[in-house]
Amino acid sequence: MVLRLLSRFAWIVVGGLFIFSGLIKLNDPVGTAIKLEEYFEVFSTDFSSVFLSFKPFALYLSIFLSTLEVVLGVALLVRWRLKTVLWLLFFLIVFFTFLTFYSAYFNKVTDCGCFGDAIKLTPWQSFTKDIILLVLILVLLFTQRHLLSLGQMNRGVTGAIVLVSLVFSVAISVYAYQHEPFLDFRSYRVGANIPKLMKPSAPLRYQYVMEKAGVESTFESYPTDTTYKFKKMVPLNPEDGPKITDFNIWNDQGDFTKEMFLGNRLLILVKDVSKADQESFKEINALLAGLEKNQTPKVVPVVITSSSSQEFDVFRHEVNLSAPYFFADATVLKTMIRSNPGLLLFKNGIVVGKWHYNDIPDLSEVQTLVR
Could you tell me the superkingdom of the organism this chain comes from (predicted)? Predict the structure, then answer.
């Protein structure tokens, strides 16, 4: 009786968690690809440069692995080819467990991306989650007879359900890639107040770890005893810290970060000119021409890129882009928007609009959002 209940509990938890994890990542396949690229870079440094050859295929691997999670989760819940599915889940979780352990133990990738930007886990939390899943899958492998005793659905029906989950998963990932994620969990989502997110929500508090005579001690305030040697500061309320710490905009004249929060600003983000979709600049240029002619309400367009000034000067002449340009870190631009180029509309620092290059807005839409 206990084994039967444990088996069914593991069946629901494992199946549901794999479906949830896969769908979260399919919602943002580009974000998952970026995380895979981080792993490839780490492994290329620690093991072999051959891992760098996988970077061009990161997006395809992102869609494949995320789809696999959903399909295996669905297949488990409907008990389609149960034995095969359980072994596939076992090998997949062993692979994930290795990744999360390596990240945690060697402090390599500080966020595994297990649940995309929706739920942030520390490396050790991710590893613990994978260990629990590994145990539950082992329970299922040894107690699968209890699942079979529930009564088998028609294999044709279960096969059709699995096939539908496969088609559905690929479809939503392709759509999310060609547009923006359905659900945006990033700090730059529509409605986000960027200047506010750059400040702590409450005063930060710390513990001070000090050492004296080989013994470590922890203090709530910095000790006045000068014989103590400082070791480190440990934040007590890191959740109250700034949610955005790396948004910086500059050019050769200096820092222009605060200027981006003044009035209405249309940010045209061009992460890498060599990979930017040039055709989309026909619509972008038409929008900029409309903004120049219709100044009520006034919207100031600015271009932000992570390419060099030499590269961007050549590029902007190729696409006839006429707007002042600034620079930002490439990682920040990847976080702000998944497309290249992409548009963000700021109203006094608040994101009121966000568009993939396949969804360039017209003039009236932009002006309506800032009124």
Answer: Bacteria
